[in-house]
Amino acid sequence: MTHNRRDMRVTCFVAAGALAATFAVRAQTPAANVTSVPGVRVGHFTLDARPTGCTVVLLPAGTVGGVDVRGGAPGTRETDVLAADNTVEMVNAVVLSGGSAFGLDAATGVMKFLDEKKIGYPVGNLVVPIVPAAILFDLNVGGHPEVRPDAACGYQAASRAQSGVIEEGSVGAGAGATVGKFAGAGRAMKGGIGSAALSAADGLIVSAIVAVNAAGTVIDPRTAKPVAGVRSADGKTLEDPFALVRRGGAQTARLVENTTIGVVVTNAKLTKAQARRVAEMAHDGLARAIVPAHTPSDGDTLFAMGTGSLARETNVSLVGQLAAEAVSDAILRAVRLAKGLPGFPSVSDLAAMK
């Protein structure tokens, strides 16, 4: 896949005061990812014994976060601390992990890593790292379901965290991710993890990293055409997900074997309430790119983080709109960059069959 640079004019009309602002938003390059926000680092760790792993997003000091859980089968940790009416404001890292609920243990390793560096919420002479987490279900991929991310996985991912170009596709939390399971077994494809960032002319950056393990099919929102998901009976082409939904195909989905999870990060300054609103709006991007989304079989969860390094008043509406776009872009990158597994062909595998 070739990524060409292009400029897109995005005009946001703000109702209050009837202000209009025009922004030049750059399209994706391999370097335009969640680490485009200054101070953000990403680390993956992928286990060898089975396709699974975890991904850690390390955040700069002063980051404030929120979360919105939309799916019916979530697995999360430390989401209550992000509520606007609760005391702690800061977030030090976010963990995305495979391994179902077992994978939440990866956050313990990240806490250990941060504690060693004295990074966390100050409590007297101590610090307590604040590390929310979300998991996806991949225990049915690659055999050996007893192999899943643990605290050591989280520690390794945190220790490998870096800025700049990051790995995408079948790595970290995306290693065992699959998509297109709502029409039954044997017709799914490989999912993965992807990242995207949009930069406005005034310095605003809104980015996302998303691990895509959906019951539904991934579509390109601009064309409404399927990219990865439920395959036809011969396995060589993709079914129309809208047609499948209309004829009841989604009713065969197996429970809790899915979930798309991700983190939106912006350099805008956000309150906890505003971060929650951005997370809510970011889910629009998830719903545009996955059909169906937010089902009882998915635990779809998006975190939103504001680092506050951009020194100007925040237009929360614009941040939320760009967050939705970044999430959609990240989802598309996740499946397009994934590598196939036995029984789960990738986008490139399917193209080679034609």
CATH class: Alpha Beta
Give the helix level as a range of percent. 10-25%
Major pleated sheet: 5 strands, mixed
What is the rounded distance between the termini?
17 Å
How would you sum up this structure, described in words?
The protein has 354 residues and is of the alpha+beta class. It has helices spanning 106-116, 151-159, 241-246, 272-289, 316-336, 347-353; strands spanning 7-14, 19-26, 41-46, 53-58, 64-69, 76-77, 93-97, 121-123, 126-128, 133-135, 178-179, 189-190, 192-199, 205-212, 217-220, 225-228, 261-266, 290-291, 301-306. It has one domain: L-amino peptidase D-ALA esterase/amidase (4-Layer Sandwich), CATH 3.60.70.12. Strand 1 (7-14) and strand 2 (19-26) form a beta hairpin. Helix 1 packs across helix 2 (151-159) and helix 4 (272-289) crosses helix 5.
